[in-house]
Amino acid sequence: MKNKRVAIIGAGPSGLAQLRAFEALEKNGVQVPEIVCFEKQENWGGMWNYSWRTGVGRYGEPVHGSMYKYLWSNGPKECLEFSDYSFDEHFKKPISSYPPRPVLFDYIEGRIKKSNAKKYIRFNTTARWVDYNNANQKFTLVLDNLKENRTYSEEFDYLVVASGHFSTPNMPYFKGIEDFPGGVMHAHDFRGADQFKNQNLLLIGSSYSAEDIGVQCYKHGAKSVTLSYRSNPIGVEWPDGIKEVPLLTHFEGDIAHFADGTSEKFDAVVMCTGYQHKFPFLPDELRLKTKNNLYPDQVYKGIFFNELPQLIYLGMQDQYYTFNMFDAQAWVARDFMMEELVLPEKDQRRKDMDDWLKRLNNLDGCYDAVDFQSDYIKDLLSLSDYPDFNVDKVAEMFKEWLGDKEENILTYRDKTFTSVVTGTKAEEHHTEWMEELDDSKERYLAFQDEVEIELEKAE
Amino acid sequence: MKNKRVAIIGAGPSGLAQLRAFEALEKNGVQVPEIVCFEKQENWGGMWNYSWRTGVGRYGEPVHGSMYKYLWSNGPKECLEFSDYSFDEHFKKPISSYPPRPVLFDYIEGRIKKSNAKKYIRFNTTARWVDYNNANQKFTLVLDNLKENRTYSEEFDYLVVASGHFSTPNMPYFKGIEDFPGGVMHAHDFRGADQFKNQNLLLIGSSYSAEDIGVQCYKHGAKSVTLSYRSNPIGVEWPDGIKEVPLLTHFEGDIAHFADGTSEKFDAVVMCTGYQHKFPFLPDELRLKTKNNLYPDQVYKGIFFNELPQLIYLGMQDQYYTFNMFDAQAWVARDFMMEELVLPEKDQRRKDMDDWLKRLNNLDGCYDAVDFQSDYIKDLLSLSDYPDFNVDKVAEMFKEWLGDKEENILTYRDKTFTSVVTGTKAEEHHTEWMEELDDSKERYLAFQDEVEIELEKAE
């Protein structure tokens, strides 16, 4: 292990999971490689580190975050709980199943703050370019210290790419959009519903973004929300004020025309048209080239680049599981880098990947997809000592969540679930989600009676 | 010259000037080096190539353009005319002195279309990284073909950086901005006034952007426009509906507070807070590090990187002169690359730069600044065979323009000037600028009588 060096690109949930995985060993007295984590942003948390900025950041790099105000978890927190750091351990009391962004950020940060992982992270530093040298089997990274406007190079034995894949917008062209008079933005640049109050809003897409931004804008006072889908509508029962229409064909001024021949006037457009996997710092032969799916090709066990397993990708899948999946991946990656886990030969790895891809191609709907990713998680858990958790029970919760959403898209966040890590049953939030316009940690964590006192004072 | 290779980064006015400069020689039968021009966008024209996109482009690269709808030249076209390709030659008839964006784009394109320069340009290609090798004195460029998602490297003897400096926003933080409920954008992402109709708009800054976006929004129906300046107001006589206030100190919700203790409620904020010189593809020791000023340090004659003159920067100055200055620079750069122009030694170059910088530091107001840049242009013109033009007369026009703006910021674009290239007096535009809401080339070029016929038809 001595003298080996590991570079991690990104200090979001995946990159931090990798740091945490090594730290878990170190705490047990094991010597770990020298680790450097490069983070473009000023702080850790990746996507969960909210920024008001859009476009490019303070130093002119594309803004990483797609996060917006009033974002509440859109899945039960019990489905993403770290199995080595429970919500109970962090908050010291039960909380609801669907916390807002600041609360989840606090949780992510809580685990990493307990370690001295911060010393491994170089903030405000972006990876400009990576060269892999076959002769000495090392990666040379060109780094750019954005704050100091200074570039330098360093060599590493392993490269962990944990830069996420919900940062680079995919933004198709629609005829006439250049003459649409209102604002046009990608969901990546959406920072909250306030500016759409009393507006007729067109959302293009039927992904989580479309669903969530649509519901938020409805909740926070948009006059109407219209979602335009390409192939299939989201199809839940929408309240009055939200509707789904077929694919947008073109714009004429502020009028949008749809594939069913209908048309409507809009004030603003938000494109919820997804994201691209983008790795500008990598030569293309090392780039993961994939659409967003549950099992990207090219990576064995979803993490090891098959052409060069010292190149490791974390969190590049489409996701039901999130934090706990990144952990499971990071622990496996760690064991490989520690030379504790030996990978099979390339063609065997290829065969394993092909088996998964075959199953992926035959998935039948989202319940089946949950099972697929659950089995993937189980496979990962079998390979490392990341604390086991009841994956089948989590899968059940995911399915319940899918049902809840279908039943009522406006109230599913009022439901509660039971932790598979601690057995704790979540609290009901003190305020119904549709009535809760404040997403601050302070308000969220206030006890029911405190909120009531506040309300009385305010009257 | 044989076997020498020149890389040009950017096919905007500066990069195209460089191509045109070599082409002028080639037409005379001179053998020129092998030239490759790399352009990130799908088309040439740089800043003048309008895109509806904001943030990042189709392939996830930061959008180059800061261009918006209804942008009309904010200086007389007679001050930027190519001296080897007149407006008369292009349009075959006199036009007004302040054309809109599509008309200027047409003009830029007109000259370059006459050549076969397109064959030198690799579109949709960005420069990822540059290494300079002292041993063989060559630049290695890592290029990224965005459309094909393919990277490759090539070696060059000269590197011409013509990537502009009005692309990377400078966006300061103001306390409370993260809670401002309305839209917040940088001028770089402004695409036209329409979305601000009937809104109370706050513009931060007192640059050309603030002035021009403010007047456009006023013209196109904003309820009110407030410009907040840092040190000095623009100070012209504003119409009712536009005003200047001191520096923004902070936001409380949708209320902006200013340094004079006043405060006001706004619907949206546009930061006209300038741009950064940004060269992410260059190692920092080759980066031009400068604020926007009329004579950036580090570059001899405003173009040759003093530490390494084979590295050439075009158009990196703050600009009164534009297209004709880029030309004058490109012709000088060409002669150096052709080994027709020999540069003095490094310390002599340093002394020359210091002399200019000394003068720069003692400039007294904008009339003096015009003279400064005029003298810089004359210096360049003395060094190459770029067709001479009457710089003193152009300087006079700039001064007249400054006075016109001070006299009436809403009508200065109705004035006309006389070309120093052809002696042609500009036509008055068929419609007063404040009444002209259509910036299309078709309408602009229509004869007065055609417009009248159209108007009659519409009635």
Task: Tell me the layout of helices and strands.
2 copies of one chain form a homodimer.
Chain A: E1 5-9, H1 13-27, E2 34-38, H2 87-91, H3 101-113, E3 121-122, E4 125-133, E5 138-145, E6 150-156, E7 158-161, E8 168-169, E9 183-186, E10 200-204, H4 208-219, E11 224-228, E12 242-245, E13 248-252, E14 255-258, E15 263-265, E16 268-271, E17 275-276, E18 299-300, E19 304-305, E20 311-313, H5 323-337, H6 346-361, H7 365-381, H8 391-407, H9 441-445, H10 448-458
Helix pairs in contact in A: 1-5, 7-8
Would you identify the CATH H-level superfamily of the largest domain in chain A? FAD/NAD(P)-binding domain
In the CATH hierarchy, the third-tier topology of the largest domain in chain A is known as FAD/NAD(P)-binding domain
Strand percent estimate of chain A: 15-25%
Tell me the helix content of chain A: 25-40%
N-C termini distance of chain A: 64 Å
Q: How many strands, which pairing sense, and closed or not: the largest β-sheet of chain A? A: 5 strands, parallel
Provide the CATH architecture of the largest domain in chain A: 3-Layer(bba) Sandwich
Count of helices of chain A?
10
Give, in spatial order, the strands making up the sheet with the most strands of chain A. Answer: 3-2-1-7-20
- Written as H for each helix and E for each strand, in order along the chain, the element string of chain A is EHEHHEEEEEEEEHEEEEEEEEEEHHHHHH
Rounded to an integer, what's the Rg of chain A over CA atoms? 23 Å
Number of domains of chain A: 2
What is the largest interface, and how many residues per chain? A-B, 47 and 47 residues
User: Can you count the beta strands of chain A?
Assistant: 20
Helix and strand composition category of chain A: alpha/beta
Q: Tell me which oligomeric state these chains represent.
A: homodimer
The rough form of chain A would be described as globular
Could you tell me the mean pLDDT of chain A?
A: 96
**CATH top level class name of the largest domain in chain A:** Alpha Beta
Regions with little confidence, pLDDT below 50 for 5+ residues of chain A:
none
